[in-house]
Amino acid sequence: MRVVLMGPPGAGKGTQAKRLAEKFRMAHLSSGDIFRAEKAGGSALGAKLAEYMSAGKLVPDEIVVDVMAKAIRECSAGGGLLLDGFPRTVPQAQALDKQLAASRTPLDAVVVITADDEQIVRRITGRRSCPKCGRIYHTEFMPPRENNVCDDDKATLDQRADDKEDVVRQRLEAYYRQTEPVIGYYRQSNGEHVVEVDGNRAPEEVTASLIEAVSRLAGA
Ligand code: AMP
Asked: Per-residue pLDDT tens for 148-157?
């Protein structure tokens, strides 16, 4: 089964993608995670990616398509695939369609998680993570016991540079301008496989709706 998960930054894609991938035994490919790993590795490509990411801008299509095509080839030998954060522009969606058509493994579902802008800004700007163990916190919704310190290993928590409010607003603007048209593209080419799920709810409710939608769309 091949599924694309879409939605604005902060709609809960990352959390929901992990749950969906586990439930349906799909490989989970997050373009943001792949790019952050490349950045952390210190390569020339990583430095190029960082320029765009720290400004809240989309990475140019040629770079994204190259990196993601390779990642898809490496992991999708027969198995299920959940794409999270890719495609984010119409040219990326077209390149993905071409690659999946060539391997005769078309998309089964395009699922869009929706969320309100102000809720998104609140969710993202409060996000913190432990640099040592990776545990995720939220200053308001899931605070650590001691202010800004990991409960497990006492490391000082980090905020992603692109989770600061001005960058979040940039990322939202990029979403509406460049990524929302991708939903229209899929509705036109593959309308019966597209579904929207309301992300302004408790994470468990969103997960239940997503599982129901994917099961229905993929005929699982
Ligand atoms: P994310 O973790 O999905 O919010 O991605 C973090 C950042 O990586 C984004 O703000 C973009 O700068 C970049 N990025 C991730 N996926 C894509 C994509 N498909 N196209 C362009 N830029 C991307």
From this structure: 999 999 999 9
Summarize pLDDT for 59-76 with one digit per residue, the tens.
Answer: 999 999 999 999 999 886
The pTM score is 0.88
Residues with CB under 6 Å of ligand 1 are 9, 31-32, 35, 52-53, 56-59, 64, 85-88, 92, 162, 171
* pLDDT for position 110: 96
Which pLDDT band holds residue 77 (cuts at 50, 70, 90)?
low
Ligand 1 centre to CA of 52 (Å) is: 9
Task: Please state which architecture CATH assigns to domain 2-212.
Answer: 3-Layer(aba) Sandwich (3.40)
From the list 28, 2, 27, the residue with the least C-alpha distance to 13 is 28
Give residue limits of the domains in the chain. 2-212
Angle, to 10 degrees, between the axis of helix 61-75 and the axis of helix 90-102? 30
